[in-house]
Design goal:
InterPro entries: Glyas_Bleomycin-R_OHBP_Dase (IPR029068), Glyoxalase_6 (IPR041581), VOC_core (IPR037523). This is Enzyme related to lactoylglutathione lyase. The chain has 120 residues and is α+β, with helices and mostly antiparallel strands. It folds into two domains: 57 residues, 2-Layer Sandwich (Signal recognition particle alu RNA binding heterodimer, srp9/1), CATH 3.30.720.120; 56 residues, 2,3-Dihydroxybiphenyl 1,2-Dioxygenase, domain 1 (Roll). Helices cover 19% and strands 40% of the residues. It has two helices and nine strands. The strands form two sheets. Strands 5, 6, 7, 8 and 9 form a five-stranded mixed sheet that branches. A four-stranded mixed sheet has the order 1-4-3-2, with helices on one face. A hairpin with a 5-residue loop joins β8 and β9. The protein is globular.
Length: 120
Amino acid sequence: MNHIGFGLVLDVADPDAVAPFWAAALSYTVVGGVGNYVMLLPEGRSGPKLLLQRVPEGKTGKNRMHLDIDAPDIEAEAERLQALGARRLEPGQVQEHGHRWIRMADPEGNEFCLSEAAAA
């Protein structure tokens, strides 16, 4: 059976500038860049690659797809990510179907959710 992998591509204005944020946020390593691209890979574990792609147009609306970052303590993780350059998109937490998350954006404004990790 063939294994099908996948990667994520995030359009950004400056891949070199946002790569350190996403590397720290996801515990990824910046592998390197060429031309309009910078690639990040998980540190010591499996997971999708993240490719930051330079695009000329600015972000104008809500992302059609976003990342969810799972953490056991979303408030503490929100503080850590804010220190790295992220910002909250609204005060407080969103709660739905017994699950909590915080809507955030990276330093360029790309949305992501900081999601409460499921109990083991």
